[in-house]
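This week, think about what follows.
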Amino acid sequence: RGGIYTFSLNNGFQFTVPADTAEKRLKVYVGLWRATGRLEATLSDGSAAPYVDTSMSNSSGTSNGVYTITFKAASPAQSLRIRYTNTNLFDPSGNVTLEAATLQHGPRITSLSVSSAGVGDAITITGTSFGTTQGTSTVTFNGTAATPTNWTNTSITVPVPAGATTGNIVAAVDGLASNGPAFTVKPKIVS
């Protein structure tokens, strides 16, 4: 493996990635040599407790690892700060290495064809990154699973499911949830 490294106690790396109300998944690839690494992840709006891990340590050689962090902020235009530092040296040249980082965005709902409908009525969800086919992806109405009738990367057609209640509509792709626009379930009038 390659990357950039730094040594000396409490030295390391820091970077930020964008955060908003849609889930994202960040993978941070790290390493160390004769040191203990400390990874800290903090949202700028403080909407989640900081994540801190110091489990990667090797007193006699090299260790490599991958941190997978799934996150979302409580409000738009935020950031996630990642800091990886050397907290213990087992050798004067002990070091920590930042090898790579990847960021995966979840789906984003940009609009609903209607903001309220009754059970059984079809609505269209428009957005991005839904995937070209549904596969194992899901749509829920305030937590109640729905069965889409059409699925493309930018559009989902889905009837309001039985048991749905007023709340948020969420699409989840590869385990990453979208933002959740509000939706009102209207009572059905049967004459």
In short: The mean pLDDT is 95. The first strand starts at residue 4 and ends at 7.
